[in-house]
Amino acid sequence: AVVSTQSTGVLADSFFVSCLPMQNPSWALISVDLYNTDNGVLNKGSAAGVPIVTAVRTDDHSKSAFGTICDEHFDDHAGELLCQHLGYKKLLSWGNVDGNGDYISKSELVTAGVSTVVNDPNCSAGSTSLMTCNPVLMDHVCDAGKSVWIECDKSSSTWTFTGYGALIKMDEGDTRPQIGGNEGLALTYVFNGQNHLNGFICDDGFNDRAADLTCQEMGFKSAESYGTHGEKAYVPDSVLQMMNLKVVIDYLKCEDTDLRVTDCSHRIMENNCGLSDSIWVKCRK
């Protein structure tokens, strides 16, 4: 597996705010996302692709591993639970990249330096969610061609946009983000019936009405200004990555007739946005 002391590149955006049980006592699985390639560029967020997981050392969280799931012990049940964890009701199909390299080919995995992290998902017949599995991590590295791909039923997405939590920012000297002020990165929540996930909104489609409703959701009158994390960093990237935060809402488009931000059209958990595309707002007190 690829082990590093910091998150870099496209995989840095793949964190979930949850920890899964582990069998190897020194590693914990903290995230999983589906990836595919477009002209050699890794993209995430679709309902089909190669699951890329992130694991961290439990005794030193600065050390992380990014990699795939080996197919040797993978089965339909593990695939179903994985799709459900990602917000889809059911699995359509699965296989390995040797048999189907359309999502990511073996050569692309090798070139990117991505190998296997999960040898066995270890989801027993009694496991009702991915959180109740006991995966074997960093115990065996199988060939990159044995990496699993899955296809979930896109029409059965169960994620719902539940609203905003707070605006977060850090001033010089702060050791952790401030919560509850009138400006900062807009932290929002989505829910799939089993798991709550917090993250950010991408700037795609975001407009003045969306900014006003965002501020009103948090008790302010309207928005004074807004922009992206790439333009103004209210919180350092390193802190956001340690908090396991990523973009969860894309194409939030609000009309004058929308009364709450959750009434606006939006897309959940399907985007190619990075942290730099995350929206910040400054609200009028």
Annotate the secondary structure layout.
Elements: E1 2-4, E2 27-38, E3 41-44, E4 48-57, E5 60-69, H1 76-85, E6 91-96, H2 106-112, E7 115-120, E8 136-137, E9 148-152, E10 160-169, E11 178-179, E12 183-191, E13 196-201, H3 208-217, E14 223-228, H4 237-242, E15 247-253, E16 265-268, E17 279-283
Parallel strand pairs: 5-7, 13-15
Antiparallel strand pairs: 1-5, 2-3, 2-4, 4-5, 4-9, 6-9, 7-8, 10-11, 10-12, 12-13, 12-17, 14-17, 15-16
How does this model look, in words?
The protein has helices at residues 76-85, 106-112, 208-217, 237-242, and strands at residues 2-4, 27-38, 41-44, 48-57, 60-69, 91-96, 115-120, 136-137, 148-152, 160-169, 178-179, 183-191, 196-201, 223-228, 247-253, 265-268, 279-283. The protein contains four helices and 17 strands. Strands 1, 2, 3, 4, 5, 6, 7, 8 and 9 form a nine-stranded mixed β-sheet that branches. Strands 10, 11, 12, 13, 14, 15, 16 and 17 form an eight-stranded mixed β-sheet that branches. The chain is globular, with a radius of gyration of 19 Å. It is mainly beta. The model is unreliable at 1-24 (pLDDT under 50).
